[in-house]
Amino acid sequence: MANLAEVYKFPDKEGGLNEKERRQLMSEKGGFASTYRSIDQQPWSNDGVCMLIAQYLIRNSAFKALSIEYRSNRLKLSAGQFVTTVRELAAKAAINSLYKTEDSAYTATKRALVKLEKDGFLTRKAIGKTVTQCTVI
To answer: Could you write out the DSSP letters of every residue in 72-125?
Structure first.
């Protein structure tokens, strides 16, 4: 069997980064987040919006307790917590690119958060009118 690294090797583009440079840039971004393959067996795994949100939260949630400033508010986060607005989450998790309008993406993001919360993947807590704190369980 062929080496999978060779089968899926990115082709070099003229003037683009070669594979070594691309990997070096990825490793300089501040670590990695491992994901169990069982994420593909979750009840919501066939929902693209849920998968985008789940992966985004896994990658961006606090990995240890820390204090942040978000919209002029000082917040203390525990491991697994992330603070955002639904509109900001839709934009940053690439959900806006799936819909014609930001309002449609907003609605899809809200629906997906409800689905993920019902399944037990996360909990949500409102902080003010628009800010939501998500805790990935």
So the answer is: TEEEEE-TTEEEEEHHHHHHHTT-GGGSSSHHHHHHHHHHHHHHHHHHTSEEEE
Sole residue written with tokens 């896994």: 58
Report whether 77 contacts 67 (CB < 8 A).
Answer: yes
Taking Cα atoms as reference points, which of 67, 63, 73, 68 lies closest to residue 136?
Answer: 63
Q: How many other C-beta atoms can be found within 10 angstroms of the C-beta atom of residue 109? A: 26
pLDDT digits (tens, 9 = 90+) for 15-53: 555 666 555 555 555 666 778 888 889 999 999 999 999
Residue 10 has phi, psi (to 5 degrees) of -70, 135
CB 114 within 8 A of CB 78: no
pTM value surpassing 0.70: yes
Contact 132, 84 (CB under 8 A): yes
Q: Tokens in use for 66?
A: 């820390």
